[in-house]
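User: Predict TM2 domain-containing protein's structure from this.
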Amino acid sequence: MSNSEVSTASYGTAVALCGVFGVLGLHHFYLRNFVHGFIDLGLAVLFFVLLFSGHIGLAYLALLVDGLHTIVMFYLLITEQARDGAGRLVKLK
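Assistant:
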């Protein structure tokens, strides 16, 4: 794989953002995967809206989906299989 196919984004920063702020989708925004970022952020907001409106079961379902997506993304990042918004692999340099 040539260097042009490797993301310019920092591997460590992406992993740290996913580990700490994963359910908010900040790692997706950092990697320029804006659609996934807005989905993660939307699910987090949906969790709070549903929770405070009394729909506790649906709120935790939204959080579960968001959490599972974050776990999968974290796995992809630490195994260097995740891609940035341009389709390039995020790898440890």
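Residues 56-78 form the longest helix (23 residues).
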